[in-house]
Predict the structure.
Amino acid sequence: MERATIADVAKAAGVSVSTASRALRGTGRVSQSTRERVAAEAERLRFMFSKSAASLASGRTMRVALLLPNEISRWFNSHVFEGVYEELASRDYDVVPYVIWDERDLDAFLRELPGNRNVDAVIVCSFDMNEAQSEALAAFSLPVVGVNTPSDRGYDATVRIDDAAAMLDAVRLLKSLGHKRLAYVTKPLSPSPFVSSGDVRVAGFRQAARICGYDEADVTVIPPLKAESMSRPQDVYSGIAARLVSAPEPPTGICVSADFAAMLLLKELRRLGRRVPQAISVIGFDDDDTAIASDLTTLHQSPTELGREAAQLALALMDGKTPAQPYVMMPTSLVLRDTTAAVDAVVGI
Amino acid sequence: MERATIADVAKAAGVSVSTASRALRGTGRVSQSTRERVAAEAERLRFMFSKSAASLASGRTMRVALLLPNEISRWFNSHVFEGVYEELASRDYDVVPYVIWDERDLDAFLRELPGNRNVDAVIVCSFDMNEAQSEALAAFSLPVVGVNTPSDRGYDATVRIDDAAAMLDAVRLLKSLGHKRLAYVTKPLSPSPFVSSGDVRVAGFRQAARICGYDEADVTVIPPLKAESMSRPQDVYSGIAARLVSAPEPPTGICVSADFAAMLLLKELRRLGRRVPQAISVIGFDDDDTAIASDLTTLHQSPTELGREAAQLALALMDGKTPAQPYVMMPTSLVLRDTTAAVDAVVGI
DNA sequence: GTGAAAGCGCTAACAC
DNA sequence: GTGTTAGCGCTTTCAC
């Protein structure tokens, strides 16, 4: 397939290159007849724009970078990606992922990409950069929008879920079911130093417990473990399950920071002979496929929506608009399934 | 951040633009001292290459397109993406996804992208194009590599899992467990007309049954349903479960084309009072998180590996090499969990 | 080992 | 409405 350039199209249609450009892009004033003639020739010659040439000349790349702190395939990441893609693709933008595992990757990104008009915007997902790093990013005159970032500093816009409200929903449910002692279990840490630590969520849980009148002594928080320190992921949860169950006053209402972790914990609790939900209630977070598989009561969130919202903000910013509400909080919702029940229902253990 | 161009760097280092280019890219002969001087100035000026300018001048875009027939967030897609990304990113390529839902999307892709040097290669995932379409793609002088495509025609290289061998593993297991009647359940069709239909897998199952000595009458195949035709996904499986269970001679060994579907079917079978694995054995496919959650015996496949392999082939082709083995078949492996058991163990129902 | 010069294919003033 | 003219920031012969 011989590459036809816009010059070829222009010549074939008997117009100048600039007219051909205007006609093909629908900008400026071009007569109906010329427009059609040019379009016909372009079609005939199988003309395609060179994105590189267009970018170079216009300064707009039609490309936005999506920064991820870990695997593209993770539930959260891939869903955010999907949302971002949907919005951006419909406006003809390409979205290019960059997985940033460590400082080296971030440095490389910062020193190679955002400068010389290589992307039109950057969307940063679940990232926790230090001040210097986010300043470095902000220093480029590019829209930077964050998804579930720990703070708004350094971002032109951010989108996040309302962790505090979510935890309040969960704790209120447990309270209403009569649970006297609660626990919060954090999923293992990702190896990337940039993943948001989830502190907001734990803090939200603690605060919710306080609001609902729980005494600090009745609230256990299991901090995250390093995933690598364990042979099998399962082992992490058998340890935690044992610890929870063997406490002098075992908690009966348990919140877990992610469904996958909740699912594993659930298995371990049952393996230890604890009946869920009869003896212990478990609430997950995310509402992913494992929650469905485990019939897990959980807090539903929609990372796809977060991605869509983030992309819309990026779009607005790229258009030079100032979003009316650049810092967006998205709701979660409690999904009741089969791992929560009233404490009154306890029969045996 | 003021954009420094290579000309600025060259001037600052007191060399010509071409020398600066050579120095920065490590190509051609440049003296050690110049190289260092140029590097230092580039660093100082925070120089970054303009990808567009480089592409335009060199004809290489350092970008490869990944064509997906449906959501980026799907287990298979996002894992292939991850594998592709890993290989390509380490060689400095960007990978840009394009979700092709329908003919319109494919036309748009075909007419806009691959031409004028907009990508260096195309990787096509689980795609089933017609002859004209794959010819159109092949007509560009670009490497095109397929992942789990129904055929090799039109591709410079393909990577796929060995569906036939996988199904043989599954059927052999069921046979060895004493199951007399088998069934194969296909997951609902995706709305995209381009997703590989999975015919290879069903054919593999049928063949495996034949090889293992099953009579055709003892083998049931439930064809895929249109997902949209159902109110809830669950309903699809309650229907199928009822149908399987109520047959005059109900099958007791069931293969399902995907874990998520197997998991839903499993729930329905149990809801109907059938004990799995005591009365019925179920084998899934994929080995994703829902398989873990459901303790599902399943055929493990690694889409990440497929992606890596595909990317390596694309890399070789872009380098102008001819891969020794361009049509690669990857193995699956049977993972035994808790949904398969010997028929002898049947106690009650 | 280094420099000069000619593009790569397009957009964007600016004229008319 | 349409054409002319400069570039955009690089890479790449080709000289020297």
